[in-house]
Amino acid sequence: MTNDPVRASADFIEQFMVDVFCGLGVPEEDAKVCAEVLICADKLGIDSHGINRCKPIYYDRIKSGILNPVTHFEIVRDSKATAVVDGHNGMGHVVAKRCMQMAIEKAREHGVGCVVARNSTHFGIAGYYALMAAEAGMIGQISTNARPSIAPTFGVENMLGTNPLTFAMPSDEKFPFMIDCATSVCQRGKIELYERMGKDTPAGLVIDRSGKTRTDTSRILADLKSGKAALVPLGGLGDETGGHKGYGYATTVELLSSALQNGNSMKQLSGVKEGKPTPIELGHFFMAIDVQAFIDLEKFKGNVGHVLRELRVSAKAPGRDRIYTAGEKEGIALEERSKNGIPLPGAIVADMKAMRDELGLSQYKVFPWEQR
Amino acid sequence: MTNDPVRASADFIEQFMVDVFCGLGVPEEDAKVCAEVLICADKLGIDSHGINRCKPIYYDRIKSGILNPVTHFEIVRDSKATAVVDGHNGMGHVVAKRCMQMAIEKAREHGVGCVVARNSTHFGIAGYYALMAAEAGMIGQISTNARPSIAPTFGVENMLGTNPLTFAMPSDEKFPFMIDCATSVCQRGKIELYERMGKDTPAGLVIDRSGKTRTDTSRILADLKSGKAALVPLGGLGDETGGHKGYGYATTVELLSSALQNGNSMKQLSGVKEGKPTPIELGHFFMAIDVQAFIDLEKFKGNVGHVLRELRVSAKAPGRDRIYTAGEKEGIALEERSKNGIPLPGAIVADMKAMRDELGLSQYKVFPWEQR
Predict the structure, then answer these.
(1) How many other CB atoms sit within 10 Å of the CB of residue B280?
(2) ipTM score for this prediction
């Protein structure tokens, strides 16, 4: 059992992150939003976008001065069902949550609400905001652009972000329907997982400048960073297995996220200018569709649940005893982790100690898992 | 050159289809809509959804009494930015075009418009309706469900339709951005193409009940029809290459298309009941987003065009001299076919003759390509 990660309750980790963000100069109310979005990923088992990102993304960027801890949320344009917001390089979670709240309010009034943000920053999981809609009895559709990493079909250059196209809908089950995923075959986080497991990366996930698919996990991670390698769009290399579709959806997300708000896109989001780190000012797209403008909400939830249940009971492939529907694995993780806590691998614990020590958060002198 | 298909002008084929639909009892105004949507596919090079579908889908269904030639378009519910429509098993093109017009009008008024249809039928290419939005200076997002053909990840049963998730946006280029594709790796039409070419189907596109991928093209086509085989979701078999993502998007489309309008889904759309053909009453989802509610339209078009041009000039894979963006190949086909006409393979010409003779369309006694 010595290699098992320690575990801590979601509440504890969330409060720790609130204190970290406050220590960095994020106002308390905003710090709570940032922590809430990050811990939501951990609760749902989306380990690539939770506490593990606290230091390398937000902490380090605020420290290096390329991310504003204080968010100036400016509504640039506001009409009936639509709005454009400027986040002025503040905390992406804070910008995004307020945008989604606006979209939900507009949908309550008009049936649909659509808000786009410019000069925002990394907002955590898109799913958090889609779930806000589902909890409000609405369909949520969210997109954001991101640092360039996907190569176009027949190309080899990292051009498009992992650009999630995310949907959530309320259901009559324990957890809403939710699909929250990158429009590449996989994200960097999955390759980092292969590294931790000491495994080669499967063919077809990463392409390098020679046009060949790469499997050497450690070198892939370095080459993705330097731009010598790129992620393959959902559907795979070339167009025979539909790679042009994933590429088309990644482009759709790039356009939804940038063109409506007249903002940055693709290489402008690389975070480096003349060899120095620069702000990564992202664009987001938030849509809420009020179910009750179309149909009784309970009826809708039943309809959604019915489709999901039919899918699950359909004929399994030999050797497979279970078919999942989107959002189900997240719902299972939520249940398990609310009982057993969130696993914290050694690298994350080390980051937590570093942040505690640097910020002088003396209330965390002894972490709960260190107590005997 | 003897095996080259004959060609005819789009205008000629369109008028022929108008006359066919009128001959079947479709009112002239509606017949024009049906023909316009179908010829749009032919003009754009989407040969799977144009004149080739006229007979096996619409003609045969009207003849067999499972599709109403006269469309009763009923607005069931209409509020600010939203509406629910019932198509009463009429012509899908007619239902869909009016729904999209409503969505566009609502978007002009509120910034966004969202209309769903129930008891509609096969509406041709989703792209036609997305392009209506683009032509109106809007973003179009369209979905429809369809006869069950995609197997869930880890499943082998045909459950979900090819369920397109379609977007179009205006650009400053000759043709709008448009992605109009199934959420499976490929559609049946592509496998029919492999058959015409006498080629095996590549592995990973089709799965059968044993869980194995199939390559025997002719038997695949029979087994897809009988439900012994199913299409693989975009991303491929299993979840390692992202198949669960395509499956998740196919489910999203199924839900958007059915749950909001309280309609049929999945197996209910198989078109067969107790061995007899029955109506296939589909659901559609139409969204229009008015660009001008967010940004000056010309500015938006320039932003879209800029992203597309950057993608095209990015580094090519060795041996590839061109990167396409979504909608570009359709734009190229449009130019070429407006000069040279639409190719009509022998099977389509035979269908045209059969329809002409059965309906007594004597004005087409000699087709233009038969004149010397």
Answers:
(1) 24
(2) 0.97
